[in-house]
Amino acid sequence: MLVKYEFLKIVRKKSTLIVMAVSLILTGFLFGLPIMQYQIYDQDGVRKGIKGIAYEKEQFAEVSVPLSEEYVAETIREVQELFEDPDNIGNDGNEQFLIGDAYWDKVAPREKLLNLIAGTYSGPNDSWGYNRFPELDLKDKTSFYQAMRGKIQALLDNPSRVLSREQKRYWSAMADQVDVPLQYGYYGGWEIIISSFELLMFAVLAICIVVAPVFSGEYQAGTDAVILSAKYGKTKLTTAKIAASLIFGTAAFFLHVVVACGLPLIAFGTDGWNLPLQIANTTIPYPFTFLQAVLRNIGIIYLVLLAVIGLTLLLSAKMKSPYLVLMILVPILFIPVFLTPNGTAGVYNLILFLLPYRSAMPEFGKYISYQFGGLVLDVLTIRAVLYVVLTVIMLPLAGAGFRKHQAA
Amino acid sequence: MKLQLKKLRKQYGEKCAVNNVSVNLTPGVYGLLGANGAGKTTLMRMICGVLKPTSGCICLNGKTMGQLGERYYTHLGYMPQDFGFYPDFTAREFMLYMAAVKGLDKKQAKRRTEALLHMVNLTEAADKKIKSYSGGMKQRLGIAQAELNRPAILILDEPTAGLDPKERVRFRNLISDFAKEKIVILSTHIVSDVSYIADTILMMKQGRFLLQEPMSEVTDSIKGKVWELLVDERTAAEYSRKYSVVNLHHEDGMVRLRMVEETAPERDAKAVEPGLEDLFIYHNGR
To answer: What CATH number is associated with residue B8?
Structure first.
């Protein structure tokens, strides 16, 4: 009963409706932008928006195959043969590339796949496209999956990453769990979602704006003395306020998630949900499908949200006005936007990757890990653990803050 | 039912808002009088358990607040001064919410809500949002919520402030209805309100009780110290500066003054029956 009324107190406010409406529109706009701005080129020019997406999906239909060693070798050979005909080759002074029908008929429809294959054979600090295929010697028997593992190892061994032996072992073992051959296919919608996750921080902020008055609003309105002098004011009511905030936060968050994921998936389709993340980047060590990756990261952002709600409630219980709460909260959430990591190791970077804003970014291909003695945890796991712990600490502290409040 | 305040003290830095207050309260209406800053609200909030005393303790039937825990609050009904309601709730929702906070079960909550809304004449407006209520309606809703759990101790902080005379009379009658067999502590600036319904007067000044007297005897101490006289306007202005003037009334070019002084301010001054307002001015100055 108390939870119901506390929930009603939150949702009945006009400010709640306004903040939620603005936040949902903003989320819709931000996640809808890639749809509106989407464009792809064919021989006749540019195709935009939904038409462009449909055209790209048609092209992917032909390459939705398992990337067997034979298939990859055959694909490389086909491109190499195209480069053997001088009429097919253009040059911009730096590098050569295919032109004319050779490009539009044989490369353009599968350029993403060709670049993925080329990138797998490149060195750890290089960025190769299909135009580097002529340099590959297929006779040296270096298979695609050997190259994939070799590149991962080279990345792990790169001195700039400063990874310990245990960390390298951890990542290699994880990468070994990736099922091969990789099944290729279209994954446009999931790619948009994964690359835009941090935009959900606006939703987190909006939820915190709504939750900020849960305790401090009572102090501001002068209702604190009435409720704290009632039988359950310092006990069940405090729990009810926290529960109502979490229920509201959860409902509002998943409403935003529906908008954020719904728009790209409606426009680009759900194709690719069961395909491995490695078809976007073969050096990703996480053995997840796109759907699993998205769900896991949504889960982590949700845990971040719970901890941030905990912090908001704690500040709300300690401060006399919701505005003061937000004055502290907004910098905590958004200052990390302006802090850029300068690597993947070192205290600064390792802390930065755990701050709320950065925690929304999955960083699947960065091999960010934390070592405690012999125990190695990847960034996704440590974020989940950290934010669960913070939630568990902060919610009871918020409750205690309200219970101890002096209605002077 | 016996509520004991034992050497209750509340200190804010250098300032002592309530200074070693001790009193035993049994059922009856207690009018708590005092100027602004005298410590009335602080004292009430400590009794309500929302403000921790710096020292001293509050006992109900011999047990301290700490010993009673949640049970202490089941005996309590509190209507603070100027408290905001939840503007987006209707009166009925607010009452049901407060009933839940006070630990009433669903059935009781509904029954008490309907009865009290009827009693405070808000049944027709019960489903209107509180933000549309007038000041008087809000005050009535305030006392209704305080009465939800049939408290043995009812604490009302300035309940008639901001009400027009008609609403004040109505409100006084409501308090009288609710006061039966309860300890009611009523703080107000409006001395006449107290004089109508209080059994005992508690007067506070600088955090201490100056007076703890039954209503019938409270003015005895200033008998022979309240004076009336008719003077011209110039003299009235001079006396207003010089003496504690309780009232000033213009009559045909002359001014009738009511003053509280130890001795007659002049030979023509006539001693009159003292009232509560006279007592207030006597203790709190002009």
So the answer is: 3.40.50.300
Do B118 and B56 lie in one domain? The reply is: yes
Evaluate whether A137 touches A129 at the Cβ level (below 8 Å): no
For residue A304, pLDDT beyond 70: yes
Which among B214, B247, B269 is the end of a domain?
B214
Domain boundary among B214, B245, B275: B214
Q: Where are the alpha helices (DSSP H) in A165-200?
A: 165-176, 188-196
Name the least confident of A63-77, B1-15, B258-272: B258-272
Give A149-159 pLDDT, tens digit per residue: 999 999 999 88
What value, to the nearest 5°, has the Cα angle with vertex B218 and ends B213 and B220?
A: 130
pLDDT at A85 over 70: yes
pLDDT digits (tens, 9 = 90+) for B120-175: 889 999 999 999 998 888 988 998 999 999 999 999 998 887 777 887 888 888 88
Q: Of B42, B45, B50, B75, which to mutate for an interface test with A (greatest number of A Cβ within 10 Å)?
A: B50
- B155: β partners: B78, B185
Cβ neighbours of B57 (radius 10 Å): 15
Q: Taking CB atoms and an 8 Å limit, are A232 and B101 in contact across chains? A: yes
Please count the structural domains in chain B. 2
User: Which residues of chain A have a CB within 8 Å of the CB of B42?
Assistant: 408
B36 lies in the same domain as B112:
yes
> Which residues on A lie below 8 Å from B145 (Cβ)?
226
- Band (B42; pLDDT cuts 50, 70, 90): very high
- pLDDT at position A140: 66
Contact (Cβ atoms closer than 8 angstroms) between residue B142 and residue B171:
no
Do B198 and B251 have their domain in common?
no
Give B-chain residues touching A224 at CB under 8 angstroms. 50
Both B204 and B187 in one domain: the answer is yes
Q: Establish, for the pair of chains A and B, how many residue pairs have beta carbons separated by less than 8 Å.
A: 89
Using a pLDDT cut of 90, give the percent of chain A over it.
67
Instruction: Please tell me the predicted confidence (pLDDT) of residue A142.
Output: 66
- Which residues of A are less than 8 Å from B76 in CB distance? 229-230
Set of chain A residues whose Cβ sits within 8 Å of the Cβ of B70: 231-232, 235
Q: Above 90 in pLDDT, residue A23?
A: yes
Phi and psi angles of residue A129, each rounded to the nearest 5 degrees, phi first: -115, -175
| pLDDT digit string, tens, across residues A341-387 | 888 788 899 999 999 999 999 989 899 999 999 899 999 999 999 99
- Are residues B10 and B129 part of one domain? yes
Out of B80, B88, B101, name the one closest to residue A225 (CB). B80
- The ipTM value here is 0.86
Dihedral (CA of B260, B261, B264, B268) sign: negative
Do the beta carbons of residue B104 and residue B148 sit within 8 Å?
yes
User: Distance from A23 to chain B by nearest Cα, in Å?
Assistant: 22
Domain encompassing residue B177:
3-214
Q: Which residues of A14-33 are buried (b: 16+ CB within 10 A; e: fewer)?
A: eebeebbeebbebbeebbbe
How would residue A107 be classed by pLDDT, with cut points 50, 70 and 90?
confident
The answer to whether residues B183 and B275 belong to one domain is no
Share above pLDDT 70 across residues of chain B, in percent, rounded to a whole number? 99
CB spacing of A225 vs B98 below 8 angstroms: no
- How many CA atoms lie within 13 Å of A102's alpha carbon, on the beta-carbon side? 18
B42, B84, B149: residue with CB nearest A223: B84
195-254 in A: which are within 8 Å (CB) of B?
A: 220-233, 235, 237
Q: Please check whether residues B163 and B258 belong to one and the same domain.
A: no
